[in-house]
Structure formats: C-alpha cells, structure tokens
Model the fold of this input.
Amino acid sequence: MGFLIETSYLLTAVVFILGLKRMSHPRTAPAGIVWAGVGMLVASLFTFLHPSIVANYGLMVLAIGIGGAIAWYTAMQVPMTDMPQMIAIYNGMGGGAAGAIAATELLKEHFRIEPDQQLATVQAAIEAGADLDIVQDFVLHAGGTSGLVLFLAMLGAIIGTISFSGSIVAYAKLEGKLEGAIRLPSHQLINAVLFSVVVVLGVIIVSSSEPVPLLLILFFVLALVFGVMMTLPIGGADMPVVISLFNAFTGLAVAFEGFALNNSAMIIAGTVVGAAGTLLTQLMAKAMNRPISNILFSSWSAMGGPAMEVTGTMKAIDPQDAAVQMCYASKVIIVPGYGLAVAQAQHKIWEMSELLIERGVDVKFAIHPVAGRMPGHMNVLLAEAGVPYDLIFDLDEINNEFETTDVALVIGANDVVNPAAKTDPNSPIYGMPILNVDEAKNALVVKRGQGKGFSGIENHLFFLDNTRMVYGDGQKVASELIAAIKEF
Amino acid sequence: MIEGFLSLYIFMLAAFVGYEVISRVPVILHTPLMSGSNFVHGIVLVGAMVALGHAETGLEITIGFVAVVLGAGNAVGGYFVTVRMLEMFQESKKGQ
Done:
C-alpha cells in the first residue's frame, strides 16, 4: 500500500514540474495546468489509502466537497479584473491549511515519545498482534521526533499562518474594503516584538516534553495577528510584491509540513513553489527598484528630499483631436495601467486598436512589470479583451522603440511612465525602470482628473511640451476615440 | 539522521528546479504562473487529509476538518482560475 501511494506522489511531483515548465509559452501552458490537475487528482485519490488515515472518511469527503464547491463557484464567477484578490484568497487558504496541519501535529503526544519508550510500545503492540501498518506509522511519526523535524513543523506553522491572515488583509485591500496604508505609532517596533514573541513561543512549544494547548493557542493567535499587522501598512500599489511573497510563504509552509508528515509530494511541490514565488518577488522588487525590505517595512512618503519643481503646464486635448493624431500616426504604442482595469476599458481599447490596425497603423502594447495589482495583471486583462499576445511587449523588449513612435497612448498608468524616475534624484521612485513614453514624438494621457494619483507623486510627463491630456473616464474616452476614428 | 538529510537534499534540489523552471517564464505569463504555482501548493490537501485521518479528539477533528476545507479550496480554486486565464491567451490571426 505504501509503495502505491509513494509511486502516485512521485508521479504527481513529476507532472507538477512538467506542468509548470509548460508555462513558459502561452501555446503550451493550457495543457500544463491540465497535467498538474491530473497529478493533483491522482495524489488526493491515492491518499485515501494512506496507512495513517484510519478514521473520519465521511468528514473528509464532506470537507473536500464544501471547500471544493465554494472554490469552484467563486473561481468561475470572478471577473478578470478581480483576479489578484481571488488568487490572494486561495493562497491564504493553502497557508491556513498548512497552519492547521501543524496545529494537529503539534497537539499529538506521540511526537514526543522518548526512544526507549518507543521501543517498548512497539514491542508491546507487536506482541498484542497489531497491524504492521499501524506499527510502521507509529515508528515513522515517533521516529520523526528529531528536533529538526519538529522545528520545521513549527516554522511551517508560523509561515503558513502569517500567509493566511496576511492574504486576507491583502484581499480586503484589493477589494477596496480597506483603504490605504494603515500604520500605528512605532508600527515596525510592535511587529518586531510580536514576531519575536511568536518565535520564542514556538521554540518553547517544540522543546517542552508534552503539548500545552494554551500555549499553542496563544502561538497561533499571535501569528495571525502578526500576519495582519505586517500587511496593513503596505499600500495597494505594492500588492504585486506582497501577493507573490505570500505565495512563496505558503509554498514553504507546505514543504515544512511535508517534512513533519514525511510526505515527499508536499516537500517537492511546496519547495518548487517557494522557490518560484521567491524569484517572482525578486523580479517585482527589481522592477520597482526597491529592496523587498523597503517595500515591506517603509512607506514611499518616508523617503527622499523635496521633489524637483515641475515647469510647464498640463495641456488638454479633446478626444476627437487625439483620434486624428493617432489616425495620422504610423506607429502607436499603448501603455495600460491599473486605471484601465478600474474603468474596465480593455475591450474598448482593443476595439479602437483594431480600427487603427485596419487603417495600417502599427499598434503595440507596452506593459510595465508592476502595472496592475499582480505581476502580469495587464496581460491577462488584454488577453481577455482579445488582444493577441504577440502584440504585447514588456519593458525590455519595447523601451527603445518609443523614440520612433509617433503617438504613445497612456491609459490608467502613472508612476511607471514618470520621467522623474530618471531625472529627479529626490523622487521616491528615482531609479525605477520606466517606460520611455517621454521619448515618443507625442504622448497622449487618458486620465480622470488633474490629481496626482495613487502614489501622490507629481508626474513630470504630464507637463512636457509634446504631452496632451485627455480628461475623462477611461471607458468613455475610449468610446469617443472609437467614434472619432470611425468618422475620420 | 541520514534520512533527515535525504529530505534536506530533496528540499535543496526542488528549490533549484523551481528557480530554473520559473526563470524561463516570460513576463506575459506571470499571472497565470503565479496562480498555477498557487494551485501546485494546493497539494497541502493531501497533508490535511492525513491530519484529519488520524485525528482523535474533538479539537483535532475540528482543526483537521478546517484544514481539509481550506486545502481543497486552494487546489480547486487555483486550478479553475488558472485554466480560465490561460484559455484567453491567443495569437493574432496574421501570425498564423
């Protein structure tokens, strides 16, 4: 029986890795996720035969039914614009599950049996004619009492629990239920103390000779609180980094619980995700030109000196004239940002682009790595609208094309096109790689009003001589542009 | 002791595999990748089933039950969200 299960886990690990590998191209990716899905199905079906599972089969099926049904329903309903918060929630569920597993394991006494006692118990069990599977399970678990394994289980409990409550806060922020960055006085000091207490409690729990439920409860509650406190001060624009960090956290937590349960499928899958999430987090932080610690522990406004004075004025243009400008252009690059998602304007923008393409205009889309609320968020929205992926380019691919571009149309993006990142050393975003919209022959910026936008940083692009502002809601402006292009 | 180290080797090798596999994924697919890897750690469901399967006291059963609900939610939600997103990516007609 054990052999069958291990084989199924091995197979699952293989298809998981192959499935993720297929994610490297849009053409192969859909099959990749199906492979991984089959792996998951096989692993969970074979787990019903696991020697450690001796009871509660009915409850198990019920729990899978409840969790699966809710998740299936929400996954099919969620609109593409709300994808980041949904992924945050599913990720949090994984972290919570890892935390809960740790809780049941840390509650179990047989984790802490001394070697002589182990031997005596096993001998007694065999003499009494116990099933070999049960004895084997006992030895596996009691043998796993090594300090390292217990320590890893505890570490997984902390990480998973933080990921659980942190993801819920991230969800609330992205959903607009929690506004802005919330910080208490000396917030980071409180967090440091809180975290130290959690770790100390964890060490006490794993080194005490028998489980102390009260300590365990305190341990988990404080870890939950820490997850909330850690995420509260982080603003919405930094969410791509946070979501991808929590994804890595859950992966690691799953791997650590895999050590505790002696389950190689969990170790491998969890670790692969942990590494992948870490890499993604690094990429995001690099795209913002800020170390991860800076994103997590400080706010933008706390940095830099007085901002450079902006010269010039913002010059408005009406949609009709903007449309004419694009019709005469031979090359147009569209730069979408989170504002596009808010206005749900992706379909209209693609309709407009198709009209321009019919007229022989070369239309491309340029996407900044941190545009939107999760890595690659804009790509998904454009794909939803039907934009073919070979028209979508990322920063490195397209940045030197702006010089030869007649019109760059910025819609709903702000900081990622702010030339202050190149010119003003006092700007909080100085050094962040930006899309070089300022180098285009003409820039059109679709914006709701004259305000400074999400980060509160003045955008120098808006004041340049060759920049024109098209004021209005993204979707409404797009409709007007379409009408004007049709009439032209 | 040796067995413990064996697990650590698995851990180390899996970390390298994850890093290498993911570093080849283009920016355009980062969201599906994230939700795909989110699905992969849904394997926590298997551990949750084991935890519930040998839970004895009422408290253990309750926690185990919650673990399985959450684990199943992670796996199922992560899967369907990823499939939905990947279905949308298409090449332009002129490219075919």
Confidence is low (pLDDT under 50) at residues 300-304 of chain A. The two ends of chain A are 73 Å apart (CA to CA). Chain A touches chain B through 118 residues (CB under 8 Å).
